[in-house]
Amino acid sequence: MSVAGATYMFGLYSKDIKSSLGYSQTTLNLLSFFKDLGSTVGVPSGLLMEIAPPWVVLAVGSVLNFFGYFMIWLAITGRIAKPSVWQMCLYIFIGGNSQSFANTGALVTCVKNFPESRGVVLGLLKGFVGLSGAIITQLYFALYGGHNSKALILLIGWLPAAISLLTFKRSEFIASGVAVVILLLLPIFIVVKEEFRQWKKKQEVLGSYSLVLGTF
Q: Percentage of the chain surpassing pLDDT 70?
């Protein structure tokens, strides 16, 4: 869920679609409409969840996500012939619709696994969807340096698809939890270390000042 909200990032790469394909603002608004339409059509994912295990739902969402955004990336980078507007609408609809498969696969499974805490679980999962735009953006700056915004579309294509296909054993869940705790505590350690360094430096200055006064 932490990377399942790529539809909220349309404003970050829409200018590349507009400039690369020579679209007007009206055409760009049409693409945005189909992007939102795809993300809200969740009936297919719900029906699939009724007859298939969660991993199938996530796998379908992974394929749709990669295909939709990868085709958009190929189009704006000139690696394929310029597609028609209806083709771009179809690509972004498919990419947006993949979000409903990720949401359904994760939400339904977690609610079934934690029936007594479903309110907390739903709040956490939906909160991560809202934060996913910021998370993907920071990963984009870390991996691509933030200088090529077209690469953001490629990242949106492969990263959520790859994460949807990852599986963890119990021991791996524990290891990942320990790693997350370490990452959360690391800033505190850095702050304490910096404060100690500043305190030590201040004590050295005070000691030198006292020594100078003692000589007089």
A: 94
Could you give the CA distance from residue 198 to residue 179 in angstroms, rounded to a whole number?
29
Whether residue 1 lies inside any domain: the answer is: no
What angle is formed at CA 190 by the lines to CA 188 and CA 196, rounded to 5 degrees? 105
Please state, rounded to an integer, the average pLDDT across all residues of the chain.
85
Q: What is the pLDDT of residues 182-195, one digit of tens each?
A: 877 877 888 888 88
The angle, 0 to 180 degrees and rounded to 10, between the axes of the packed helices 54-76 and 43-51 is 140
Joined together, the tokens standing for residue 139 give 């990963």
pLDDT at 12: 84
Percent of the chain as helix, strand, coil, to the nearest 5: 85, 0, 15
| Cβ burial 93-123 (10 Å sphere, 16+ → b, else e) | bbbbbbbbbbbbbbbbbbeeeeeeeeeebee
Same domain for 55 and 24: yes
CATH number for the domain spanning 81: value is 1.20.1250.20
109-114 LR contacts (CB < 8 Å, sep 24+): 109/54
**For residue range 105-148, what is the model confidence (pLDDT) as tens digits?**
888 888 888 888 878 888 888 888 878 888 888 888 888 877 77
Structure tokens at 73: 């990336």
Q: Which domain does 128 fall in, by range?
A: 6-167
